[in-house]
Amino acid sequence: MYAFDIERPATVAEAVAALSNEDAQALGGGQTLIPTLKQRLASPEKLVSLTGVAEMKGISSAGGILTVGGGTTHDDVAADGSYKALSELAANIGDPAVRSRGTIGGSIANNDPSACYPAAALGSGATIVTNEREIAADDYFVGMFETALGEGEIITAVKFPIPEKANYQKFVQPASRFALVGVFVAKTADGVRVAVTGASNEGVHRWSAAEEALSKDFSAGALDGLTVSADDLIADLHGSAEYRAHLVSVMTKRAVAAAS
Amino acid sequence: MPKDGGIGAPTRRREDVRFLTGTGQYCDDMNMFGQTAAVFARSTVANGVIKSIDTSAAEAMPGVLAVFTGEDFVEVGGNPAGWLINSRDGTPMHEPKRPVLAHGKVRHVGDAYAAVIAETIEQAKDAVEAIEADIEELPAIVNMKDALAADHFVHDEIGTNQCFDWGWIEDNRAATDAAIKGAHHVTTLELVNNRLVPNAMEPRCSMAQYNRANDEYVLHTTSQNPHLTRLLISAFVLGIPENKLTVIAPDVGGGFGSKIYHYGEEALVLAAAKKIGRPVKWTADRTEAFLTDAHGRDHVTKIELALDKDGNFLAFRTETMANVGAYLSNFSTATPTFLHGTLMAGNYTVPNVYVNVKAVFTNTAPVDAYRGAGRPEATFSLERVIDKAAREIGMDPIELRRKNFIKPDQYPFASAAGLEYDSGNYDALMDQMEKVADMAGFEARRKASEKKGKLRGFGVNAYIEACGIAPSNLVGVLGSRVGLYDAATVRVNATGNLSVMVGAHSHGQGHETAFPQVVAEMLGIDPQSIDIVHGDTSKIPFGMGTYGSRSLAVCGSAVVRATEKIINKAKKIAAHMLEASDGDIELKDGVFSVAGTDKSVTFGEVALKAYIPHEFPLEDIEPGLEETAFYDPANFTYPSGAYCCEVEVDPDTGKVTVESMTAVDDFGNVINPMIVTGQVHGGLGQGIGQALLENTTYDENGQLLSASYMDYVMPRADDLPFYTVDHSQGNACTHNPLGVKGCGEAGAIGSPPTVVNAVIDALQSGGKNVTHIDMPMTPHRVWSAMQNA
């Protein structure tokens, strides 16, 4: 690790001010950034730790919307239970150490193409709340490790409309236990949303053909005959593009069958 | 048996108290006054010419004390191969120099070409980044087949990428060919024994001190055999006289073979400590461990099994390419040859065996012995081709094995691959396996799995291995450059407790518990009064260390011999004290008595007398009570086993789960059944890891894609089933005093083919005509095989 300065702001305003320095970088739970620093693969001059910002922590529910503070840990989301599919997803991220430090804001800001939370946010039609604005999930996830966040912009909360039914199915990459393919399915009054993580070079994305079929008939059988193109899917030592395409179908069916 | 545990007692491991409470002392836990840090500059390309290395900027960095390059070690020796192999045509193997630091060329990603010594690790890392190395990248030689055909070489000076082309037994070749040609049926299988990264929990660490007042060095290092490491450094590499070099391997957090070998980092810190006059420590990070620890396995094999019309085995013929990586690690040439080819008759009466092994240099990390070392490769080839043959000829796989097993009345049995098996009963192992695995209930379990939409398979395997490595005379004839005896000194202290100095090194095997059980049993005293001393060349006799499941069979035998000498001498002292003839003295429960009388002295009283020899018959007996024995075994030991497992395959995803694993082993006599069970558990975890998870992948440029735990899959608890482990069917080894055979590697040898056989069985039960899948059987591979079937 290279030497760096660290600031520990107590409010979002202080954090934003600290991040106005162009060599400063936000530090959430550190589950990606700290290993990167230890490998000397990043050299920020200043880290701005968000873990002391109280207003970014906690979970509240009102009017069918679950609001999760950006600094809320996976453990806290797992324990909440008011949005069951989301809590179950959080409970299966990483291991206990990761879940006690990692945060939803950090995960969604990083937008790892194999992370779980982006599938929940996109699949639920969530809204990403920052210190500057509110961004619909459909507009937020731009590509692999790319988001709509601007320089110094901080995710203060994520708002999830709680669907009628939802479920997340993850087929794990066996080493990292990130998603080799993860599928989040949510059924709402307005229709069904299906978000896929782990599979695509473009990062998390929706599977519109499945959404259409499931909106008409919310059953695993409605997906029979639907296939996913392997074009532009990830191929690596854990699985080919064709295998991932196949798993998207399998995991979507399983999520539909398990949705509650 | 002594009250707190002699031979056969499941005593809890005393060393676990410190391991489980964080009070162990590993190399990196130790810090010396004035200590400095070494960090290595390592190649990022797999093959390249070192055009120039400019260290001037690095030397000027804050805290930097010295910078070394390969140029600094041109005059010293190379790190040698411990075993000379001759090719079929009689020519000796190619043995290119393995330097302390790369010189002229870098040959694999991670190959160290420079090192910085600085006040702190961070300063050393900063300086490494300031080294300007001009390295011209060359095309990497990665794939073994390509390497043998290539016109450019890992080592230009030898003009080939083939290290040797070995035949075993060359005189059997024609007969084997003829048997295959005339056979009723021949089953052929091409398979890969996948490369594994050892992944000891503790990365390698070496710390050197130099005292210029007496020209003495002390090296603390993560070693499985400190005396061997010292010998290599002294006699081959740096030329430091053995009497001026102490090598200490303190608590070591696992080795699995990878810490048998001497590595260049050890030589570098010694040279650096002398140059700067301060202690120098280097600790590998996990990436260095992935890139530079000697890897395991990596064979590509074609095996043929010839059978007659009744299913009798007529011949096994094997062609193997064995990857040795970029340099010859110390035992890299023995592992694919004499630890592999000699086992290619398995547990069977097969009359003809021929093995051809081509060892191949590639631009990858060196490959050497890893838990099992050659024997897992032999077992895997045999037990996979036998399973395939059973399907082809329509015979039950257990029946086919039983039909060809060596029978109990055939020992000693001269195998067609050149070994003499001393004892065993493979049918009894299979009987016990069928019983404890509840084979009768399999069909019901299969139906239950099918109800859940899963395919269930049953796989079986029989193995034999050669352990207790090894008879020096025999291995000498076969090309070993070392003897493979071991040694022990039993020191009875004046107050009656004992220190036992052993040549074996314990890095997870439980010697500190098991060896005292042996001595306590022999002397009839409390094992808690006996302590084991190991790992320090200044304290222990010259033993060869721990690998090849040898510690108890070889070093334990030396402990027995030394303890026998103690008993003989103690009886003489007791006879003097009791005014009797030493032939009349009996030892029981720690008390020496005159036969047929009530006259006795305790072991403690005899010990005290030995060191306070008043009124002592000095003309007949020396004072003191300390004896040393060296033990060189008469033969290998031959543990064997029958394993089975059941797997479930998810046909939608290809994911395999191991539902049960049964290991029935013949380890001969068992000293501590709890430790033996634990050793089998560990081996099974590694074997299942090899079968399903561990995928060491280099890309075509020689970059290690699986160089971290983000991509290299270590088995976790939830990947493994609860095991059924049984060692009730022991047949004592006939030639060592304890009758023990060794248990450290069995699980890793027996389990991989068992798992693969079970997966094939599961897929076939689902109507998929899949006959083989290479390890690791990842979900993707299993699914792909099903798509193509």
TrEMBL record, chain A:
Report whether Oxidoreductase shows up as a keyword of the record. yes
Instruction: List, for all copies, the residue spans of the domain called FAD-binding PCMH-type.
Output: 1-165
**Keywords noted in UniProt:** FAD, Flavoprotein, Oxidoreductase
Return the PROSITE patterns for the record.
FAD_PCMH (PS51387)
Q: Which Gene3D superfamilies match?
A: 3.30.465.10, CO dehydrogenase flavoprotein, C-terminal domain, Uridine Diphospho-n-acetylenolpyruvylglucosamine Reductase, domain 2
Q: Which InterPro entries match?
A: CO_DH_flav_C, CO_DH_flav_C_dom_sf, Diverse_Substr_Oxidored, FAD-bd_PCMH, FAD-bd_PCMH-like_sf, FAD-bd_PCMH_sub1, FAD-bd_PCMH_sub2, Mopterin_DH_FAD-bd
- Which Pfam families does the annotation name? FAD_binding_5 (PF00941)
Domain of life according to the entry? Bacteria
Any one Gene Ontology molecular-function term assigned to this protein's record? oxidoreductase activity
The record ties this protein, via PANTHER family, to:
XANTHINE DEHYDROGENASE SUBUNIT C-RELATED
Q: What is this protein called?
A: Carbon-monoxide dehydrogenase medium subunit
Please give the organism.
Answer: Litoreibacter halocynthiae
UniProtKB/TrEMBL annotation, chain B:
Give the Aldehyde oxidase/xanthine dehydrogenase a/b hammerhead domain ranges.
21-139
Q: Name one Pfam family in it.
A: MoCoBD_2
Which Gene3D superfamilies does its entry note? Aldehyde oxidase/xanthine dehydrogenase, a/b hammerhead, Aldehyde oxidase/xanthine dehydrogenase, molybdopterin binding domain
InterPro entries to which the protein is assigned, alphabetical: Ald_Oxase/Xan_DH_a/b (IPR000674), Ald_Oxase/Xan_DH_a/b_sf (IPR036856), Ald_Oxase/xanthine_DH-like (IPR016208), AldOxase/xan_DH_MoCoBD1 (IPR008274), AldOxase/xan_DH_MoCoBD2 (IPR046867), AldOxase/xan_DH_Mopterin-bd_sf (IPR037165)
**Has UniProt tagged this entry with the keyword Coiled coil?**
no
Keywords attached to this Swiss-Prot or TrEMBL record, sorted alphabetically, are:
Molybdenum, Oxidoreductase
- Can you provide one Gene Ontology molecular function annotated for this UniProt record? iron ion binding
Q: Which PANTHER family does this one have? A: ALDEHYDE OXIDASE 1-RELATED (PTHR11908:SF132), XANTHINE DEHYDROGENASE (PTHR11908)
Protein name, UniProt field = Carbon-monoxide dehydrogenase large subunit
Q: Which organism is it from?
A: Litoreibacter halocynthiae
